[in-house]
Amino acid sequence: MLPRTAQDLDPDGEPIAELHRLAGIRRDIARAEEAQVRRARTAGYSWHAIASALGVTRQAAHRKYGRK
User: Whole-angstrom Cα distance, residue 30 to residue 36?
Assistant: First the structure.
């Protein structure tokens, strides 16, 4: 589950435990992003539209999520 606010992060928490937790959040976000890109492509959205939503270039989006 993603933190809702900065207060949800524990600045006084044990640093290594917090780093593990943040790495898990990063993995969850990456999986969710990939799933949404697949959904967008299936729905007919262009690489340009997807890249714009992600804040990256079309080439970067295609390189990361295009078929290999």
Answer: 10
- pTM, whole model, 2 decimals? 0.74
For residue 26, what are the domain limits? 14-65
Q: What is the pLDDT of residues 7-65, one digit of tens each?
A: 566 667 799 999 999 999 999 999 999 999 999 999 999 999 999 999 999 999 999 99
Task: Provide the sign of the torsion angle of the four alpha carbons 64, 60, 62, 67, taken in this order.
Answer: negative
Domain total in the chain: 1
With 0-12 / 13-18 / 19 or more C-beta atoms within 10 angstroms meaning exposed / middle / buried, residue 49 is middle
Tell me the three state secondary structure of residue 62. Answer: helix
